[in-house]
Amino acid sequence: MNNPQKLIKAIQENIEKVIVGKSEVIRLILIALLAGGHVLIEDVPGVGKTTLVSCLARSLNLSFKRIQFTPDILPSDITGFSMYNFKTGEMEFKPGMIMSQVILADEINRTSPKTQASLLEVMEEHQVTVDGKTYSVPQPFIVLATQNPIEYIGTFPLPEAQLDRFFIKVSIGYPTKREEMFILSRFQTRNPMEDLKPVADAQQILDLQQQVRHVNVAEAIKEYIAELVACTREHKDLTLGASPRGAIALMRASQAYALLEGRDYVIPDDVQKMVIPVLSHRLILKPEARLKEMTAERILRSILNSVYVPVIRP
């Protein structure tokens, strides 16, 4: 299937055979996948986070592993370790749980900062280093991490460096009453995920990722992105604004969005659509801003309203 829009639509519709009423969330996750980024899913238990990730892996025929993060999990459990092989007389690498294409990092904020840090290298460089040797993870590679926003006992807040490596942040949310009735009907006799078949493969996703990088970004769009990011660093209600990594992520997300819209060039609307999902989790509010009930989303909307929007002609 050479048409990117048709392929992405087929993947989305396949996932929606199981997941009801979450088209926008699925679309954002697919944008992150095409842009080569990772996803932070923050939501309450039971809304379908694990099911959504499983459906994604099945739809793309990719290898999938779920890592249940707990306080006693070790970095070596994630990355792997070397052990002595008595038959060969040599050290042998035992791959960790990260050696898969789709990783569900379940309740990532329940593990220690040391174990969280073991993900930094693999999320950025798609490789792990064990005893001085580097091992690449299979491609395409995406980490989808979940965390519960309401439970604080026994959790370790993700540090800024870890948050910055997540390309996008999404929230699934509760279904409407009508959507919940559809869910009950679908799951009444059996789990519909058991019948889910692949509609794409790894090579098709890798090809799409290359197409995303070739979507044209005009100088005026780059200046627009740079100005938006600069405003977050100068905002009076923020302790920490978006990093250069965040600016690159916003550009890449805009490219992926443009591709899904059938264009080979980015327009300001693409950037505006991606600003909140890509940048909101990277901002740190000042305590007094929180007291005023300010949020990262409100600040980003005010910045969008204040920055001049360039006119782009195809």
TrEMBL record:
Kindly indicate whether the keyword ATP-binding belongs to this entry.
Answer: yes
Q: Which Pfam families match?
A: AAA_3, AAA_lid_2
Q: Which CDD domains match?
A: AAA
Give the Gene Ontology MF terms in alphabetical order: ATP binding; ATP hydrolysis activity
Residues of the ATPase AAA-3 domain: 38-167
Keywords carried by this UniProt record: ATP-binding, Nucleotide-binding
Instruction: Give the ChlI/MoxR AAA lid domain ranges.
Output: 232-302
Cite the PANTHER family for this sequence. Answer: METHANOL DEHYDROGENASE REGULATOR, MOXR FAMILY PROTEIN
Q: Which family does it belong to?
A: Belongs to the MoxR family.
Descriptive protein name = MoxR-like ATPase
